[in-house]
Amino acid sequence: MKRIPVGILGATGAVGQKFVRLLEHHPQFFCAELVASERSSGKRYTDACNWIEDTDIPEQVRSMTVKGVDEPLESPLLFSGLDSSVARDFERTYAEKGHIVISNASSHRMESDVPLLIPEVNIDHLRLIEKQTTPGKIITNSNCVTMFLALVCAPIHRELEITSIYVSSMQAVSGAGFPGVASLSILDNVIPYIKNEEEKLETEPRRILGTLKEDRVVPASFPISAQCNRIPVINGHVMTLNISVKNSVPVEDLSTLLSEFSGYPQKQKLFSAPTSPVIVHKDPFSPQIRKCISHSMSASVGRIRSCSNVDYKMVVAGHNTVRGAAGAALLNAEAYLAKGYTL
Amino acid sequence: MKRIPVGILGATGAVGQKFVRLLEHHPQFFCAELVASERSSGKRYTDACNWIEDTDIPEQVRSMTVKGVDEPLESPLLFSGLDSSVARDFERTYAEKGHIVISNASSHRMESDVPLLIPEVNIDHLRLIEKQTTPGKIITNSNCVTMFLALVCAPIHRELEITSIYVSSMQAVSGAGFPGVASLSILDNVIPYIKNEEEKLETEPRRILGTLKEDRVVPASFPISAQCNRIPVINGHVMTLNISVKNSVPVEDLSTLLSEFSGYPQKQKLFSAPTSPVIVHKDPFSPQIRKCISHSMSASVGRIRSCSNVDYKMVVAGHNTVRGAAGAALLNAEAYLAKGYTL
Amino acid sequence: MKRIPVGILGATGAVGQKFVRLLEHHPQFFCAELVASERSSGKRYTDACNWIEDTDIPEQVRSMTVKGVDEPLESPLLFSGLDSSVARDFERTYAEKGHIVISNASSHRMESDVPLLIPEVNIDHLRLIEKQTTPGKIITNSNCVTMFLALVCAPIHRELEITSIYVSSMQAVSGAGFPGVASLSILDNVIPYIKNEEEKLETEPRRILGTLKEDRVVPASFPISAQCNRIPVINGHVMTLNISVKNSVPVEDLSTLLSEFSGYPQKQKLFSAPTSPVIVHKDPFSPQIRKCISHSMSASVGRIRSCSNVDYKMVVAGHNTVRGAAGAALLNAEAYLAKGYTL
Amino acid sequence: MKRIPVGILGATGAVGQKFVRLLEHHPQFFCAELVASERSSGKRYTDACNWIEDTDIPEQVRSMTVKGVDEPLESPLLFSGLDSSVARDFERTYAEKGHIVISNASSHRMESDVPLLIPEVNIDHLRLIEKQTTPGKIITNSNCVTMFLALVCAPIHRELEITSIYVSSMQAVSGAGFPGVASLSILDNVIPYIKNEEEKLETEPRRILGTLKEDRVVPASFPISAQCNRIPVINGHVMTLNISVKNSVPVEDLSTLLSEFSGYPQKQKLFSAPTSPVIVHKDPFSPQIRKCISHSMSASVGRIRSCSNVDYKMVVAGHNTVRGAAGAALLNAEAYLAKGYTL
After folding, report:
1. Is the pLDDT of residue B60 over 80?
2. Is B237 an active-site residue?
3. What is the average per-residue pLDDT within D183-200?
4. Which of B189, C27, D60, D320 has the fewest Cβ atoms nearer than 10 Å?
5. C184–B178 C-beta distance less than 8 A
């Protein structure tokens, strides 16, 4: 099978680099165009980019010349790691020119005709793109920490109907991109505030777990109360959850429900799909990000137990720049093609 | 005024060292006896002790000979930093011999005739000691993370009547003592479990905020749901809270209620009493442990805001080995004396 | 080809776990016996072991029963991750019983008939085993930080004749095993002392780079001045070197000499052999352990430049528990077999 | 005594903030003017400044309005924490306008008529200012890591005559200012390169330890070979030294020489002067930055021992933003006044 040429928007940034890395051995896609801001365009990728991944820059892209955001692109499929401050307009423009834009930015996530897609959870939302009037389309994935909340809550909400969620997060510095958080700010510290993060975490999951009615997403009705904190770890977001449901089941059954959760990517055996979207840990000391998230596309959940106030409490962890960002976008592109949409 | 000779039980441990440090310039007490396990007894303190404080060992105790737990002590007042595994029996024995034991251990906290004392919050509980039948008495302070929850919730409960609490904590490694948490376990990691910690955090605050009826504490009735995590910071516990109350007031009023909170130690101007037991931060990036807890006896609270699920949410931080341990015990001893009890 | 059953001594420790992990997909060996102290013997590996690797325990060993050090073993080949305090006697005993012991412990390294082997550097030293009078044999690899010094200095010494070395190291906490260094000791700190480490680093490289004369190793004569420090990183030892040589060449030539260095494992294409034992970095910000050592069997060297005092200075980094420990032992076993020795 | 009004150049930066903090309780100086770039000028200090110190902003400066670098200043004495990129011109201009500029920037350090002053070491160099033709004067302190090398080497050079130095440093992130080093770059990592740092460390100590001949500094002649590394600690620079001398003495005598070292600030009992400029540690695990540098104005030295290659090796540590920056400048100003120079 011939691999599809793809472009990466924001290719020199932290998410862009993760796209480059994850695409290196991808069976369907190959990195054909690297796009970045004016400051980088015209340079060799290896010169334009302050590479922060812990593997070498893939041979194939090393000497590729970075294109500017204003240059025409040939790749039908674009992965966007653009900063939200510029993503709105650029992504729209690329869609107008006929590209399929698989975006990790927050700009278009809440628009009524843009799928906020997690293929295991709401693959049916993908058909929102049919309402988009541009020749190309925009498909988005969720905020990094939202991803893990949504993956864990999806089977719970489907079977037990969630009525409220409390979430308190501990988030890695890589979530802020590069240079992101100053070491002088975060070493030996906790920063109890991440701009706009709680708003995303309180609204995105409800759209993701919402139901499609007459081609509109009716958001799930349960409220989410979020508190987001930055802690001195490199990769991996962790959160504690308290969840109340309408139809409570014993903790053991909830645990089974989560470990047996599976969706479209698993059925279709998509390349980036994890075997299990949710991995359940029984050891009380798990999940630990250092041990469980290594380039994983799963959410890890542990310490599932009864709560004195609501029905359940538990801990969830995941890799914020893999499943929480670039990996999520790759899976979305794979699902788009598997569903028979064309480029 | 002549300073009172005091003994430190568990003097070579992490809490014991903090006692030694905090006593160095104390106007009422001086360190007269250092007590530790067999392994250390008979040695000079400076040889017995793997000193971990960031100041020098106070001159006065350097060459003091460490006594064993089985040796008779002369100091009427003892501060106990004993490990809970041995504290129960030793502290009881010292009380039987007539010593006033101010304990940081968890062993006796929930006994009906032992005050679990935070002088700002429940100074009236102190009179439980009158029910103790031993010649000496035992007075305890709370678990480290409980302290900050209790300080913040005390004025809220008194004025608004708390009906439920959700707490998710991020706790420093110093809370586990020395050697405590292996660096290989916690660097770049979160450990989502601390043995027995959630149990303490779910029960101790209710006793502390309970009411004295016929010389028994009737615990506060609100349930607490706790999730405790260890993170890679040295000192300082941080927690996010969600609180529901019976009589809600606007956020601004809650904020005022907290910043104006004051109690017995403030009125009596006790030496270890902070000016304000609760410091309210307005900047959304506060409180940060690196900036706000420096040997402080206060709880710092910030990000007080409405919650979509219950009434309020907020972040609380404090110094776990100062106000959360040794400093709390010192304040308890000062309150004991201020109340007119004798040694 | 049938895989050879091997035993791991000290299987529950940090090095033992790395052996288990590296053997999972090894084409020549498979983990047949796990041996540990009395405390662990009789238990399932998964219960006996506080697994600290960031991958799952390999399926194959999960439910294997751990054997005691006093039980007879069937595997002809044993990898020893025993603590040096017990390695001397146990390893000797196993050799007496006919096992080939590939040891990572320091106990036997300096014995006249035991090869202190780095196959790229001194494969000829392997024949020292022929002087061992036991039915089995003992082969050792070097101390972790010594490994990277020796790999880099080998080609320099061979071509230019080293006359003195200054080395200052920054070593990861994993080098101290588990639990090893307390987090309370090392977070936000440098510990400027590692017991016995400087002695090893000042003597082992001279033996490794020594010449075989009449079946004895005559150590290289240059002196090494070592200063070893522990820093708060998880994996990866870094060191700065100053090197004086007899026959100086331009820096560029030295750089070429290092990058072209290759030895027996490369020629024989041994499974654990890196393509290049020494990788030369040109970017002044390299080598960085976070980026270059990922489970690598190479030493990384960078910032090669002239020194105002002696000939050269440079920075060297490597993975202390892979090439610096378990991986080194695996390569030694592969070299042993490639050389035609039997089990 | 009336306190002298001083201005702080670069008042919102990391060094500027340290000036503000150290001046809070200074008996001779008080902070009268805060100067920063255009971006900050006109704002209240508390709004202009991202305060990173771990104490509160001193009450006195909170609502002070920040002045621009082009505004005329009234304070006769200015402390400069300006970035080197702009310090050259601005400091010169202020000196032309008659201000005494006590600078922490590197711009003017190597100019023939500017003292690179460490009052314990080269107080006689101060008279170089008499050669400056401007109405005001410029006095500089050394680079942060240079300071600790110079303090330790001064008594050695004076008594034993140093003939060469090897230094390998481990430097805290605060040395790079704010925002400085990205957390994503340095967490769990070592960066083996700090731009321009080795050049400073190889030249500044020679000027500092140089001798004044006919109003010119003749630099000390020994060569210094420096290798500088950034490690993940907040405050505190550590370095290993190898030193060769002309007139060797036993290690014990060297140790005494260092601990008895004292200079002009000690004699004059200047406010910022430490009791001992060099503190000698005997415990091999010392000096540790977490334990010994707490806002200290001393260099800490430990592990003094013989070296196989040259005469001595040892470890040195110090607080890079206190003695290595703002504190050094304060001491220089105090020495300037003590020497009878006027404002």
Report:
1. yes
2. yes
3. 98
4. C27
5. yes
Q: Do D184 and A233 touch (CB under 8 A)?
A: no
Give the chain B residue whose CA is nearest to the CA of C179: B182
| pLDDT score for C60 | 93
pLDDT at B252: 98
B135 and B151: one domain? Answer: no
Considering its fold, how many domains does chain A have in total? 2
Q: B310 and B209, same structural domain?
A: yes
Checking if the pLDDT of D56 tops 90, the result is no
Alpha-carbon distance of C92 to C137, in angstroms, equals 9
pLDDT at residue B294, rounded to an integer: 82
- Note whether A145 and A324 are within 8 A (CB): yes
> Given CB atoms, is B232 within the 8 Å cutoff of chain A?
yes
- Please give the pLDDT value at position C51: 92
Q: Is the pLDDT of residue D137 over 80?
A: yes
CATH number of domain containing D61: 3.40.50.720
**Could you read off the pLDDT of B176-228 as tens digits, one per residue?**
999 999 999 999 999 999 999 999 999 999 999 999 998 899 999 999 999 99
* Same domain membership, residue D151 and residue D280: yes
Residue C41 corresponds to which amino acid? S
A176 and A313 in a single domain? The answer is yes
Nearest Cα of chain D lies from the Cα of B48 at a distance, in angstroms, of: 14
What are the tens digits of pLDDT across the range A159-190? 999 999 999 999 999 999 999 999 999 999 99
In this structure, the strands spanning C237-245 and C278-280 are unpaired
Task: List the catalytic residues of D.
Answer: 144, 237
Q: Is C309 on the interface with D (CB under 8 A)?
A: yes
Whether residues B205 and B239 share a domain: the answer is yes
What is the rounded distance in angstroms from the CA atom of residue B28 to the CA atom of residue B15?
Answer: 20
Cβ–Cβ under 8 Å, residues B328 and B141: yes
Nearest to A188 among C52, C54, C187 (CB): C187
pLDDT at A187: 98
Question: What is each CA distance from B158 to B163, B257, B328, in whole angstroms?
Answer: 12, 10, 21
Decide if C120 is inside a domain. yes
Cβ distance of D184 and A179 shorter than 8 Å: yes
Task: Return the residue in D49, D174, D190, D291 with the most chain B beta carbons within 10 A, the one to mutate for interface testing.
Answer: D291
Helix (H, G, I), strand (E, B) or coil at B182: strand
Give the Cβ contact number of residue B59 at 10 Å: 8
B129 and B158 assigned to the same domain: no
ipTM: 0.96
pLDDT at residue B150 above 80?
A: yes
Q: Which residue is listed with tokens 């900063």?
A: A83
Tens of pLDDT, residues C308-319: 999 999 999 999
Is residue B192 domain-resident? yes
Give residues 138 to 167 of C whose Cβ lies within 8 Å of A: none
Please indicate if any CB of chain B lies within 8 Å of the CB of C185. Answer: yes
- CA D137/CA D336 separation, integer angstroms: 11
- Any CB–CB contact under 8 A between A54 and chain C? yes
Chain A neighbors of D194, CB-CB under 8 A:
none
Q: State the CATH number of the domain containing residue D265.
A: 3.30.360.10
Same structural domain, B314 and B171? yes
In a domain, D310, yes or no: yes
- Residues A62, A11: Cα–Cα separation, whole Å: 12
- C252 and D CB contact within 8 Å: no
> What pLDDT shows up at residue B54?
87
A306 has a chain B CB within 8 A of its CB: no
User: Any CB–CB contact under 8 A between D178 and chain A?
Assistant: yes
Q: For residue D343, tell me if it sits in a domain.
A: no
- Choose the mutation target among D54, D165, D190, D198 for the interface with C, i.e. most C CBs under 10 Å: D190
Count, residues in chain C = 343
The alpha carbon torsion through D235, D240, D245, D250 (nearest 10 deg) reads 100
The answer on D149 and D117 residing in a single domain is: no
pTM, two decimals, is 0.96
In the complex, which subunits touch B with 3 or more CB pairs below 8 angstroms?
A: A, C, D
Sign of CA dihedral A82, A87, A89, A95: positive
Domain that holds residue C197: 144-319
